[in-house]
Design brief:
Blueprint lengths: L17 H4 L13 H22 L7 H28 L5 H20 L2 H12 L8 H16 L6 H31 L1 E4 L10 H13 L6 E4 L2 H10 L3 H12 L10 H17 L5 H6 L7 H33 L7 H16 L3 H4 L5 H16 L2 E4 L11 E6 L5 E10 L9 E6 L2 E2 L5 E2 L2 E8 L12 H18 L21 H7 L5 H7 L11 H9 L5 H18 L9 H12 L15 H4 L9 H19 L4 H12 L7 H9 L6 H6 L5
Parallel strand pairs: 5-9
Antiparallel strand pairs: 1-2, 3-4, 4-5, 6-9, 7-8
Helix pairs in contact: 2-3, 2-4, 3-4, 4-7, 5-6, 7-11, 9-14, 13-21, 16-19, 17-18, 18-24, 21-22, 25-26
Length: 689
């Protein structure tokens, strides 16, 4: 990026800039923010931040109040400026915002790189750590300082001369490439749509799926028919239910080759990202990028991660082979599919599930209307943690389908809030996630800042005047993201750097979210949210029992698929040989792990945003690592009572409320009374020997 693109933006009156106003308001002013506000706001705050840092470096005897607290203020103010912009880019992408966002990324990356490499600031924080009164600081403040020193090292603060400049340049370029990768995936997903006008071509699709497809066609101003897109709520049910094999193949090819050709090809982007990550790691003195990534995680080294993954694979593969052999035999005998192809697997699996358990996701959807699910989820956490949620219409919104809820404790005192944006739509990033809007913090003026979360999903929207009906998988996804939200909102930490999910090792951050998923399979909890959309009756015992029986359908195959992703990721960032392409390494991992390899044209890696545009590089294993922890935590509820508020209070005290202020393994042991075991996970997945 040339120098002129980083030049200050034209001055606008800061008093009239809603992004800057949002620094001091309770919530970001989403209903007022426009693209032209972004760069001026960033420039104003970065200029002020640089002035403050220059002053801080002149302090001869720095301590917490004189150095660390002003740095927290800078972090908070910049977060209030950039956070809403980053969020809008994810949920309301537009041609006007996109170039502005890319320039903002460059400015913020340049700032982060310069700050992280500031040796004077690094030396000043070391002085604070070496003070005689360091031990008298709270545990939270000590952790903030320890994390800051570690992060300075990982940001290249100890580098000198050309190495330091090169490291900074790499970080800038990596930021550009991550944005580029993400936009390529988003654009490639939007670039294809299948408009069907012949009813024979939608044979097999359930009524609810047809209604959604018809509504999409209407919204896209098609005169008739059904519109199928590559967004998950459209693509997944089509692959599960569409009887037209040729159209399934078409959809599959389009989906797995996203961002793999032409101007949107992520292949060169991946190669450059990997090369730059490896170079940056070596500049810091690490053997490879995976080693630098693991420096801030629970797992100690690559051998521990690969050993963990391969052990899980070994315990799953025998059953996975049996599952796939069963699927092949069923497809040949009952579906006339002698040669099972990748675009047949979801379809054949759904038919096999239906035959074996006489149940499908679509059959369950009438029992999972949106508001019933949300109310039931709220009822669960109220019983566990004594908190309650109330919807408010007063918050500023970015889209008409977004909602806002305030969270209260048992004494009716507000402790947090969150936004919920549940539906898939154009110009919204795919997937589901939780992110910080505002972080809990004891401000310098003494006021306690309450945490606010974003909970974002991509589920089917209501059709006509009917409420949104969700699959059980989507309900589980909502519970998962709400678990992340609780981790952020139930924190009792008052220091910004270790509050909520901040400072939590990446391979432990999924623990609260995966823990919440377990409740979606418990009868007492299901009765809280499963209410038929028309009659209001609970899920019948027969249906629940079928759902439970089908819970671990193909669980070993699913386990191996996640291990495949995780092992590919960690090997890609560590043991990748110079003569082996990304595709060749992925093929090698599939040969070792999977029981069914996709066709040669599959370019899964080109849309693997978690590791190339998210925070999971050399860390995708965290999902399985944290799943072991979460399953073991849930086992304690199984032992003591699934709705046992005392067990929940212990979990809240030892794990959910501590943020990054304490070693997570110590916290786990304090809760469970021992180190984690894989036994509960294997049992929950039906893979116990």
């Amino acid at each position: 990026m040339n120098e002129s693109s980083l030049a200050p933006s034209p001055n606008l009156n800061p008093d009239q800039n809603p992004i800057l106003q949002g620094i001091s308001t309770e919530l970001p002013l989403f209903d007022q923010i426009k693209p032209e506000h972004v760069l001026p706001a960033i420039d104003v705050e970065l200029a002020e931040a640089r002035k403050v840092v220059n002053r801080l470096m002149q302090i001869s005897e720095p301590d917490w109040d004189s150095l660390m607290l002003p740095l927290e203020v800078i972090e908070e103010r910049l977060g209030r400026v950039w956070g809403p912009v980053s969020h809008l880019n994810a949920v309301c992408d537009s041609d006007d915002l996109r170039p502005i966002y890319e320039q903002g990324v460059a400015k913020m990356t340049e700032w982060s790189s310069q700050l992280g490499q500031n040796e004077q600031l690094y030396a000043a924080i070391r002085k604070v750590a070496e003070r005689d009164d360091f031990a008298a600081l709270s545990t939270e403040r000590q952790q903030v300082i320890k994390h800051a020193l570690r992060d300075f090292k990982l940001s290249g603060a100890e580098l000198e001369g050309k190495a330091k400049k090169r490291f900074g340049d790499i970080q800038m370029r990596l930021s550009e490439l991550a944005t580029c990768f993400s936009l390529h995936v988003m654009d490639a997903t939007r670039a294809f749509e299948l408009h069907i006008t012949d009813a024979a071509d939608v044979a097999g699709l359930p009524e609810s799926v047809l209604a959604s497809a018809q509504q999409r066609a209407t919204q896209a101003e098609k005169e008739s028919g059904w519109l199928i897109t590559l967004d998950a709520p459209s693509y997944i049910p089509f692959m599960q239910f569409a009887e037209n094999r040729k159209l399934r193949e078409t959809m599959y090819r389009e989906y797995v080759t996203r961002a793999s050709c032409g101007e949107l090809d992520n292949g060169p982007v991946i190669d450059e990202i990997l090369a730059l990550r490896a170079e940056a790691a070596k500049l810091l003195g690490f053997e490879h990028y995976a080693a630098s990534s693991l420096a801030s995680k629970m797992a100690s080294d690559v051998d521990e991660v690969t050993g963990f993954l391969r052990e899980l694979a070994r315990k799953s593969k025998v059953i996975a082979k049996q599952e796939f052999a069963e699927l092949q035999a069923f497809a040949a005998a009952e579906l006339n599919l002698d040669h099972l192809q990748a675009w047949d697997v979801a379809f054949a699996s759904e038919r096999l599930r239906l035959k074996t358990y006489a149940i499908s996701q679509e059959e369950l959807k009438p029992y999972f209307p949106e508001q019933s699910v949300i109310n039931g989820m709220f009822g669960l956490v109220e019983r566990l943690y004594g908190i309650s949620m109330r919807e408010s219409e007063s918050a500023p919104f970015w889209h008409e389908s977004a909602r806002y809820f305030e969270v209260f404790d048992s004494s009716d005192t507000q402790i947090a809030a969150f936004y919920l944006d549940p539906y898939a739509r154009a110009h919204k990033r795919g997937g589901a996630w939780m992110d910080e809007c505002i972080v809990r913090w004891q401000r310098p003026d003494g006021r306690l800042q309450l945490p606010v979360a974003y909970l974002v999903c991509n589920f089917d929207a209501p059709v006509g005047d009917q409420p949104a009906l969700w699959t059980h998988d989507e309900v589980t996804t909502l519970f998962h993201e709400f678990g992340h939200g609780l981790h952020h909102m139930l924190t009792q930490v008052s220091e910004l750097g270790v509050s909520g999910i901040r400072g939590v090792p990446w391979d432990a951050v999924e623990l609260p979210s995966q823990f919440m998923e377990n409740f979606c399979w418990d009868r007492q909890v299901v009765d809280l949210f499963a209410k038929h959309v028309e009659t209001g009756e609970s899920l019948p015992d027969a249906l629940f029992n079928k759902m439970l029986a089908a819970k671990n359908f193909q669980s070993a195959m699913i386990m191996l698929r996640q291990i495949e992703f995780a092992l590919f990721d960690v090997l890609l960032h560590s043991d990748r040989n110079g003569d082996k392409t990304v595709q060749q390494l992925l093929d090698q991992v599939r040969d070792e792990i999977s029981v069914f390899s996709p066709p040669a044209f599959n370019r899964f890696q080109n849309s693997f945003s978690h590791i190339f545009a998210g925070g999971y590089a050399a860390g995708y294993y965290a999902y399985k690592w944290a799943e072991v922890l979460s399953a073991d935590v849930y086992a304690s509820f199984e032992e003591e009572g699934v709705l046992n508020s005392q067990t929940a209070e212990r979990l809240r005290k030892e794990l959910l409320s501590i943020g990054g202020s304490r070693d997570i393994m110590d916290a786990f042991i304090a809760f469970r009374g021992r180190k984690p075991s894989v036994d509960a996970l294997l049992r929950h997945c039906g893979l116990s020997s």
